[in-house]
Amino acid sequence: MLAISLMLTVVCTLPLWLVGALAIQMRQELAFSITALGGAVAIFRLAGALAAIPLGRLSDRLGPVAALRTAAALAAIASLGIAVQAHTWGTLVLWLAVSGAANSLGQTAANLALVRTVPLRRQGTAFGVKQSALPFGTLLAGLSVPLIALTVGWRWAFVLAAVLAIAVGVAVPRGRARRYARPTGTQNRRYGKRPLVVLSIAVFFGMGAASTVTTFIVESSAAAGVSPAAAGLILTVGSAVSIVSRLIAGAMADRRGGAHFRAVGRMQIVGALGFLLLAIHDPFWIIPGSILAFAFSWGYHGLFWYALVRLNQATPAAATGLVMPGGMLGGLFGPLAFGWIAESSSYQIAWLLAAFFSVAAGLCMFAGRALLQRDLRTFEAAA
């Protein structure tokens, strides 16, 4: 089930990563601006944010098998829709909205599947593996530039994404209902709403920063003088670094046993240094800047979601759905603001905004952890 959860996360987010990686070719054919590119990414995030809470609850009711298959089917439809019908910016964002809903369903279902099938002592590693699907998706998207977009055309990349989604849906094991049933006696830890609100704000800033590097690193590198093929490879290398970062963070979480939100906050602060290097907007600094940004500002996801569901073992999908809108809205606002600033001012100023977002994410993560610790002590002392 871990492999299925990983691949489902890949196919549900792949349309988004392909739009960022293939932006040069798609903007030429569909005639839209850099700001509109940010808007397209924003629509994906907005649709996901609106769908996250109800689909999270739906996943808990349906169980992982039905939810995983439905998400894979929606992802396939969205990718095929872009390949066949995206002849204007409007039709592109329509299918990206479908993809955003598929992503929310897929994320909540995958988290539910991991909690129900992986022992708690190994869930840190499991979530690191599962969340490595996101940079693995951007890695595939980066490779699609020289291998597909510059050879047979960008639409074929989305066709292949649809085929992959269908294969994942077919591969979901049928299983028996009791295999995925909630373990007897499983309960959520008790805490108030304020920690979740602050953690949602932290994820808002974190995704606002991370989504800029995945969406605009190719365009920004090309604008700094890097060739389109090399710019795609920068995205590929950064994605590979993020995969390694997530796997290491997950394995360390299983060994550490606690202080996970604090570790996430520290990663965000370090990631801000990468955005500052990208703000120099020089080919020499693009590689180290992108490596830091991908490794830390975008490498925290698995550790964060593990820390969250560790507190909510009874209803992991619903908990994911409650916090996910913060990340989705951050992923909406970040690229939109970045694209507007890059087009109206410069990439240098836009990358400084991303650095600010990353620092804000780290500080909010520290604050959310402090509130959470206080609530856990209060509720458990009263029990």
What descriptive keywords fit this protein?
0% strand; mainly alpha; Growth Hormone, Chain: A; 383 residues; globular
Describe this structure in words.
By secondary structure, this protein is mainly α. It has one domain: MFS general substrate transporter like domains (Growth Hormone, Chain: A), CATH 1.20.1250.20. Helices cover 84% and strands 0% of the residues. The protein has 15 helices and no strands. It has helices spanning 2-21, 23-30, 34-62, 64-85, 89-117, 123-131, 133-149, 155-171, 194-223, 228-256, 260-278, 283-297, 301-311, 316-344, 347-382. Helix 13 (301-311) runs antiparallel to helix 14 (316-344). The protein starts with a helix and ends with a helix.
Task: Give the SSE string.
Answer: HHHHHHHHHHHHHHH
Q: Compute the average pLDDT.
A: 85
Q: What structural category characterises the helix and strand content?
A: mainly alpha
Number of domains: 1
The number of helical elements comes to 15
List the helices and strands and how they pair.
Elements: H1 2-21, H2 23-30, H3 34-62, H4 64-85, H5 89-117, H6 123-131, H7 133-149, H8 155-171, H9 194-223, H10 228-256, H11 260-278, H12 283-297, H13 301-311, H14 316-344, H15 347-382
Short description:
This protein is an all-alpha fold and 383 residues long. The chain contains 15 helices and no strands.
